[in-house]
Amino acid sequence: MKVGGTVPDVPKVILIGTPHTSNWDLILAMGMKYALGLDYSWMMKKEAFFFPFGGMFKSMGGIPIDRKAAKNVVEQMGDWFNANEKAWIGITPSGTRTKVGAYKKGYLRIAYATGVPIFLVGVDKTSKTLVFDRFMELTGDIEADNDQIRNFVRNHYTGLKPKNN
Fold first, then answer.
1. In angstroms, rounded to a whole number, what is the distance separating the alpha carbons of residues 41 and 112?
2. 72 with 110: CB under 8 angstroms?
3. Is 7 helix (H, G, I), strand (E, B) or coil?
4. How many independent structural domains does the chain possess?
């Protein structure tokens, strides 16, 4: 797979990985991370961080999220961004590898609450390219922003399993 576009040069960013259509997407994301020397993290439920996988997940950039905590995920991520001078996180807004009509909106809630920009990274199976595409301009209207991003992805990228786009 080739890499296209330009990696963002900002201290804090939410990388949106799209479309998320296959189990291979994690392999692709980790390969990109290490091949390009990128330092970004990703969220996973804290229950998955058990021995012997917990240490491995953390070393790969995993952030354990307590979904039952008094602080919700947006607050936990706000604390994480505030505690780190350089903080990049990768999120797949579809939330699953199967076909979805709309993206989950947590990534937008995190962006709104923290002021951290969203940068789109797209998989294009047809050209076998992983594209560092663009910052997405947000309006503050969560429905409109989510639709804009989802529609952009539908019109520009084809995932590893196109039937799940």
1. 19
2. no
3. coil
4. 1
For residue 151, the model assigns a pLDDT of 87
CA separation for the pair 7, 137 (Å, rounded) = 17
Q: How far is CA 42 from CA 59, 75, 132, 156, in A?
A: 11, 15, 17, 24
User: Which residue range forms the structural domain that includes residue 104?
Assistant: 2-164
| Residue 157 to residue 165: CA distance in whole angstroms | 8
Q: Are 42 and 22 in contact (CB under 8 A)?
A: no
Pairing of strands 129-136, 118-124: antiparallel
Q: Quote the pTM value.
A: 0.81
- Walking along the chain (165 residues) 10 residues at a time, the average pLDDT comes out as 88 85 66 81 84 88 78 88 94 63 85 96 79 92 93 74 55
As given in the structure block, the two tokens for residue 149 are 């991003």
| 3 state SS of 124 | strand
Distance CA(87)–CA(14), nearest Å, equals 9
CA distance 156 to 81: 30
Question: Helix or strand or coil: residue 141?
Answer: coil
